[in-house]
Amino acid sequence: MSGLRDGTTSSLEAVREGEVPTHVAIIMDGNGRWARRRGLPRWEGHRAGMTAVREAIEGAAKAGVSHLTLYAFSDENWSRPPSEVDALMALLEEYVRSQREALTRHSIRVTVFGDRMRLPQAARDAIGELELSTAGGTALHVHLAISYGSRAEIVGVARALARRCTRGELSPEAIDAECFAGELLTREWPDPDLLIRTSGEQRISNFLLWQLAYAEIFVTDVLWPDFTQEHLFGAVVDYRGRERRFGLVKT
Ligand code: FPP
Asked: Residue 240 CB: number of other CB atoms within 10 A?
């Protein structure tokens, strides 16, 4: 893992000069601390975080990234105080409704994965409309992890495979990594090449545990609401300097 990067930034010109990761995933962290430092309620930090979401999407599209996955709400986040959960759900719905037209116009496809049945009906409706409206987007595919937990996802895969074995459609010996990955919620897109986590915490936090097996990890101490396109470009340029070995030795 990389050491902490103190707000490393880079320019679009520098990003365009070389290889760009196909898939960037981000653990957006630090909204609460951002608010506390300003004497504001936590929800103000989440609201400010919405601006950073726009920055990340715009930056990824400009850089030529194909897939951007954002960890917006984890399984564990349901245990936060009800007032904060309500505020996050309201912001999510507001974001989805307010950005739909612009995302569609910029050909950005958005899909959501996670246990959406736990979301309030209004948020579910807004997400469904956004997915439908942006379905034809080809510039960038944004995946929002909402009410998502990787262990729950992996348990779901185990159950699905067990059911197929019980029905006699699959033999346990035929289960390999490819077969397993074929049951993941993320099965239709490539694994992340680069994971960015903001606010300095060096943890994976139950995010894409299977899919991040070979991802490069970039931790920045920038708090999520302060994250800009230039921070994303900085992470991409840093990624370019890594030697990805996928468990092999250098030849
Ligand atoms: C972590 O900060 C962030 C979240 C739990 C939620 C992320 C949500 C947004 C950025 C807003 C809307 C998102 C979308 C996709 C519309 P934290 O509260 O854990 O911060 P802390 O660690 O400083 O307390």
From this structure: 17
Distances (CA, A) of 207 to 81, 126, 137, 212, 240: 21, 24, 25, 8, 23
Burial of residue 202 (number of CB atoms within 10 Å: 0-12, 13-18, 19+): exposed
Task: Please tell me whether residue 148 adopts helix, strand or coil conformation.
Answer: strand
DSSP string, 202-215: ---TTSSTTTTTT-
List pocket residues of ligand 1, CB cut-off 6 Å: 28-33, 46, 49-50, 53, 70, 72, 77, 91-92, 95, 144, 199, 224
Q: What residues act catalytically?
A: 29, 77
Residue type, 149: G
Which domains are seen in the chain, by residue range? 12-240 (3.40.1180.10)
Return all residues near 64 (Cβ < 8 A) that are at least 6 apart: 15, 16, 20
Q: Which of 27, 31, 116, 202 to mutate to test the pocket of ligand 1 (most atoms within 8 A of CB)?
A: 31
H or E segment and range at residue 26: strand 23-27
pLDDT recorded at residue 245: 73
What is the pLDDT at residue 251?
62
Residue with CA nearest ligand 1 atom 6: 72
Q: What tens digit of pLDDT does each residue of 159-215 get?
A: 999 999 999 999 999 999 999 999 999 999 999 999 999 999 999 999 999 999 999
SS3 91: helix
pTM of the shown model:
0.94
Calculate the average pLDDT of the chain. Answer: 95
